Each structure stands twice: as C-alpha cells, then as structure tokens.
Amino acid sequence: MSVVQNLASDFVSAVRSASTVLIGTHLNPDGDALGSARAVSHYLDGIGVANEVLCHHMPPRNLRFLPGVSRIRQTPKEEKYDLGIVVDLDSLERLGSTEPFFASCERTIFIDHHVPHDAPGDIRIVDTAAPATAVILARLFIELGVEITPEIATCLIAGIVTDTGSFRFRNTTPESLSLAARLLEQGGDITQVSEQVFQSKPISSARLLGFALERMNLACDDQLCWSVLLHEDFEQNHAVDEDTEGFVNELLSIETVQISALFREPKRGKVRCSIRSRGDYDVSAVARIFGGGGHKNAAGCTFDGPVNEAVDRLVAELKLCLESS
Ligand SMILES: [Mn+2]
Q1: 273 C-alpha vs ligand 1 centroid, how far in Å?
Q2: Which CATH number do you get for residue 50?
Q3: Is residue 39 within 8 Å of residue 137, measured between CB atoms?
Q4: What's the whole-model pTM score?
Q5: How confident is the model at residue 325 (pLDDT cuts 50, 70, 90)?
C-alpha cells in the first residue's frame, strides 16, 4: 500500500516550511523507534533542515551502532521548534519527559503503526497494518524520491528487522521483504543490524534468561506460559530491564504455547509485563484492560504494587482470552 498521496505532500510541505525540526519517539526505545527517528534525522540533514532527536531514555546498548546515535539527546538544545515529527508512538504519554517539548512545536507530524490511543498530531501518517514504522518511512521516502543513503537504509532495516523479529513474525509481509531488499541495494548493512540487535547480549542478560526459564509456569494445557523476574534478580545480576528483551518470545517459542507473558520488576513496586501471542489471540485487548496497549500479537502493560498481584490479575485475563477465542 502506498502512502496516501496528499499525506506525502502534506509531509513535504510541513518539512519544507520548517527551519527547525524536533524528532521524538517512545520510552524504552527499540530498533524501530530509534531506527525510524535516526532515518528521519538523516533525511532532514540531507535536505538541509536543522533537526534534533529526543528520547526519554538513552539508546540501549544493542542499538548504539545506529548511524548518528550519539546525536540523540534527552533535552533539546533550542527552546522552541517549528515542527515536531514523532515516530513509532501511539500516545503522548509514551513521550515521557520529552512530551512538553513536542507540545510547544507549532505543528506535529505523527508517523506510526500502532493502534492509536488519542490520535495526536496535525498530520498523521498511520498504518496499523504496517509491520514497522520503518516500513511506512521507507514507502514515504520512495514515494518522495528521497535519496536513500546507506545510513538511512541501515536505520530503516534496523526498524524492520526488529519489529518483524528478523522476518519471522506473523506481521512479515511481502512488502516488508521487498522494501528490505531495496534498502540492502542502497547499502543498508543487515549483518551489522542482526549481530548488534540480536547477538550482542551482556552476560547479565543470559543469567536472567536462566531464571526466567527456571521459573516458567504453564497452564491451559500448556498453551499459556508466563514467568517472573523479581527485583532481587535485577539487583544481584546488575541487570537492567533492557536485558530481558526477547525473553517473552523465548517463552512463545515452545511448541504448545499460544500466549506468553513475562513479568518483571526492575524497579521495586513497578511491575512491567510483555505479552506475546500466536494467531488470532488478541493480547493488545488484554493489555488495554490494564491501561497498556500494543498490537494483536505483541503488547504490554504495567502494574503498581506487588508482583504476585500483577500475575494473578493478568493471568486470569489471559486464561479468558485463550478460552474465549
Ligand atoms: Mn514499531
């Protein structure tokens, strides 16, 4: 599907009439968030528009290879920007501490593939069927005839590879594969992306995975699987939440498992949960019950209070989701 013509021209005219652009993305940024944000920044550099990328959190270790990543800041240099471009984001809250800087932009463009919460932004280029925000950007750049440099190509591949799990997840489309092929032709480095994103785990991460597998729980004829990482686990292993990236997919990789969930408490009293599913099981609907969100097969939410309580509440809903589908 191509970007709707008038959206592409709205995008260009908004960008062309701005002299300063602030680019933003979500808390706990992943490869699609930072890859997309950096790709927009490289594009703006190329057409001579001053820009900056802001993110509430610093880039995680495994994304520090992204071209231009050192330019990502947590607070802006300028007081005010003409245009805000926000990528891979469904709700203003997920901008975290950077939200007020975007609120003060004259206009904002949102480019995203999540199911919208509050539909923010003056121009919205949103396709919930796209596997990654980077796919929407690749379409947009091709439609606009943007020169895709090797830096832009690597950033966009990082987004596509991350959100499709290296083209293994159900959201992988023929289009995402052909766009990736095109990005490789433009000099995108998929080997570097794969090695850095998936094969550069710290030892603390491997240790935590051990705990997660050891404490695995199964229910509903082994179709539901969940595990818990306690605050002590993080402390004792000098681990951080980003070290648990991908664990929930490990749980889902078990033959019988249709829905998996990973609860973790990197900060005491705050329980974060990632949920994954196969097929038609819609775990984003379950996450929304608890104020979270995401996609049909990949969602998340957070709980205040003790871990056990969070497990009881969410697992009960996941059982209903399995039984009612
Ligand atoms: Mn994404």
Answers
A1: 17
A2: 3.90.1640.10
A3: yes
A4: 0.83
A5: confident
